[in-house]
Automatic annotation (TrEMBL):
It comes from Conyzicola nivalis. Homodimer. Forms a membrane-associated complex with FtsX. GO terms for cellular component: plasma membrane. Residues 2-241 form the ABC transporter domain. One of its GO terms (biological process) is amino acid transport. The gene is metN. SUPFAM superfamilies: ACT-like, P-loop containing nucleoside triphosphate hydrolases. This is Methionine import ATP-binding protein MetN.
Length: 330
């Protein structure tokens, strides 16, 4: 649905220039919620803004719903942008217009006539749960309600793609959850493809099907979450299941086991201790619902000889579990 191919973008010229995006390629499937994560300055905002050409890439192509956005002339680009809605961190609402007025404005801009505007704005406000606030002004609303208008406005042109630029970063955790829930609902009900950027792994965990990690303007990893969590060495998977540091005084080998799908229900650790006669210690554990599936990661200390550890790891792997040796015995 969105294809970003070998896109680079720099700001400034000469020795003072910054390469914000460096040969970025990403594929976002139709109907997916795709999250781009990365630290401050990684290039997330620049990347999302290239999708509707708020930033024009220096090189590379961007295709949205079969249309090569990067080669459209201005008039065609204006039309193409109607199918790409965008939600911003700081809402960007017009304070002089009511809730309804803000949504209708987005329809006015794309030439929808008065009657149709009223009926469509009503429908969208219903969808985002703000129908009873239609005559309120932005200043009278909470952050979460303001973001609901931001989302309603982005949906006005009946887009097939929604871009979300840190939509929940200015919100408290509970409001964040309700906005993420709303994103999921519109993704499902309107068959909307969502590309979001965030610096919060929780956002990815809660709503995304796929994710990419951006670092210094480059994509260092991308894929479906269900696949990433069973990919050895995946940094995104590690960030999805943070296990913290190895406790001081740990002397045995340390392994991380990732459980997903059916393996989450098996008594793996008890069996390991029994079959290999080792006193397994659990150093950390986390269970998450990722892309709708329960998955978890457990960090174990395996005391004993290197041979016992190797046999235990081989046994776990033979059961189809992802096992990573974090540290050999001290
Ligand atoms: N308009 C601009 N002019 C000059 N440099 C820019 C501009 N926009 C972005 N940059 C630079 O490009 C790099 C990537 O910035 P970008 O805002 O895309 O990162 P980000 O991952 O979104 O960061 P944050 O999470 O802090 O918003 C940074 O080094 C930034 O300073």
């Amino acid at each position: 649905m969105i294809s970003i191919s070998h896109v680079s973008k720099s700001f400034g010229v000469g020795s003072g220039s910054t390469l914000a995006l460096d040969d970025v390629s990403l594929e976002v499937g139709r109907g997916e919620i795709f999250g781009v994560v990365g630290q401050s300055g990684a290039g997330k905002s620049t990347l999302i803004r290239t999708v509707n050409l708020l930033e024009r890439p220096d090189v590379g192509t961007i295709t949205v719903d079969g249309r090569v956005i990067t080669s459209l002339a201005d008039r065609d680009l204006r039309i193409a942008r109607q199918s790409i809605g965008m939600v911003f961190q700081h809402f960007n609402l017009l304070s002089s217009r009511t809730v309804r007025g803000n949504v209708e404005l987005a329809l006015e801009v794309i030439g929808v006539d008065g009657r149709e505007r009223r009926s469509r704005a009503g429908e969208i406000l219903d969808l985002v749960g703000l129908a009873e606030k239609e005559n309120a002004y932005p200043a009278q609303l909470s952050g979460g309600q303001k973001q609901r208008i931001g989302i309603a406005r982005a949906l006005a042109g009946r887009p097939s793609v929604l871009l979300s630029d840190e939509a929940t970063s200015a919100l408290d955790p509970e409001t964040t959850r309700s906005i993420l829930e709303l994103l999921k609902t519109i993704n499902r009900e309107l068959d909307l493809t969502v590309l979001l950027i965030t610096h919060e792994m929780d956002v990815v965990k809660t709503v995304c099907d796929s994710a990419a990690l951006l670092e210094g303007g480059r994509v260092v990893e991308q894929g479906k979450l269900v696949e990433l969590i069973s990919t050895p060495g995946s940094r995104l998977a590690h960030d999805l299941f943070p296990l913290g540091d190895i406790p001081a005084g740990t002397t045995g080998a340390v392994v991380d086991i990732t459980f997903s799908g059916g393996s989450a229900d098996r008594p793996v650790i008890a069996q390991l201790a029994r079959d290999h006669a080792i006193d397994v210690s659990i150093l950390g554990a986390t269970i998450e619902t990722i892309a709708g599936n329960q998955a978890g990661r457990t960090r174990l200390e395996l005391p004993g000889s290197p041979q016992t550890t190797a046999a235990a790891i081989a046994d776990l792997r033979a059961q189809g579990l992802l096992v990573e040796l974090v540290r050999d015995a001290a």
